[in-house]
Amino acid sequence: MPSSVVTSSSVPVQRLSASNRVQDVKEELASSSEAPDGKSVKSEEGDIHDRFFWTYTEEPHMTRRKAIIKAHPEVLKLCGPEPLTLPLVVAVVTLQIACAYLLRDTPFLSWKTFLTAYVIGATANQNLFLAIHEISHNLCFKSPMGNRLLAIYANLPIGIPYSASFRPYHLTHHKSLGVDGLDTDLPTALEAWFFDSLAGKAFFCTFQIFFYALRPMMVYKLPLTSIHALNIAVQLVFDYLLIRFAGVRALGYLILSSFLAGSLHPCAGHFIAEHYVFAQHSRSLQAGASDKLSAPPPETFSYYGLLNFFTYNVGLHNEHHDFPAIPWTRLWKLKEIASEFYDDLPCHYSWTGVIWQFILDKEVGMWCRVKRKEGGRKVGFGDAETTQHRQPIVGVTG
Question: Helices in the chain by DSSP H: which ranges?
């Protein structure tokens, strides 16, 4: 196991806050940080080729959410739709269609097309990726159908229909964080083994948009619904009309923008920053150690830098996983209200730095993820499954 993947038996938590409730959260995490036989779990079924961090712990966000609500019940007032998302989506969709039209006569293999796609297009399409992420939590309209339709609209400049499939896979990621076979954000053991080198990690970071698009379907398949059919039909009609009136180069610009948005682009750093365990996180924990308390490694990491401006504050990822029902405009307020729960958590300071450290640091790689075998639920598998997922979970939308 790489040294950056920290075992529950060796990682002390940060110094205890003055808040008793924060201490209670840490004690609850620590009490569940060992396997039933009292030993930490380093690999599933003792497989020496499996170097993920396997844990028996409950995912940490539910525990912290309950503690925050107990300490600050007013945070529940932050939950609910954010209407500002709608005009922003319309503006970015319009921007991308305008750029595609203006480049209709520009050769696809030209610096003008590439630089426009990298600087403007990739940033805009990453913004739309994360608008769809926000909308998947029903955080623009009160109406679920309104959110589904807006997601399909936001999908247009991306060029490939995916918004209908993204939602159930993403909500399962929230309800099944780290659960092998359910959380499709987790790399498979084959991926981690095959790309376990500098060249392999560079390849993964360059083409990671394909991994995030194809991996979920390899883990499990979703049933086709009317929303999926509508998403596909609307996207095909849009792509056809774009080619008909602006030419194939216009569509090529949009697809290139989507590729670059999930490649070696600063905003793409969030894909890695959110859940991979880096060496400095273990060092920050050890620096503030308590001799009496140990906890499993953190599984989610926030970023509080300027790129949040372009990405619906997705960098506030601990805050988002704790309260998925709080929209992007109010996550900073959540952090302010419950600061004692967040200020000591390890975080990232640069998404660009995350990408390069992930590639160059031998102690960081695709094995550096926390996994668990049990827990979680799938979203999007018929009425019975939908009913199960609509059981009230405070602060969570599905």
Answer: 20-31, 60-71, 85-102, 111-116, 122-136, 144-155, 163-175, 189-194, 198-206, 208-219, 226-246, 248-261, 269-273, 279-287, 317-322, 331-337, 339-342, 351-360, 382-389
Cα separation, 63 vs 274, whole angstroms? 19
166, exposed or middle or buried, with CB in 10 Å at 0-12, 13-18, 19+? buried
DSSP character at residue 197: S
Residue 384's contacts (CB-CB under 8 Å, 6 or more residues apart) are none
CB 380 within 8 A of CB 309: no
To the nearest 10°, the Cα dihedral for 220, 126, 272, 64?
-80
Contact criterion met (CB below 8 Å) for 279 and 364: yes
Tokens 């990690």 identify what position?
Answer: 201
For residue 44, give the amino acid letter.
E
> Directed axis angle between helix 144-155 and helix 85-102, to 10°?
20
Rg of the chain over all Cα atoms, to the nearest angstrom: 21
pLDDT tens digits for range 28-69: 544 444 444 433 344 444 454 578 988 888 889 999 999 999
| 314 in Cβ contact with 130 (< 8 Å) | yes
In tens, the pLDDT along 194-245 reads 999 999 999 999 999 999 999 999 999 999 999 999 999 999 999 999 999 9
- Tokens 């790309």, residue? 195
CA distances from 94 to 34, 99, 101, 108, 153 (A): 52, 9, 11, 21, 11
What is the model's pTM? 0.84
Tokens 């339709």 correspond to: 149
Strand-pairing partners, residue 302, are 347
Pairing of strands 53-54, 347-348: unpaired
Helix axis angle, 85-102 relative to 122-136, nearest 10°? 150
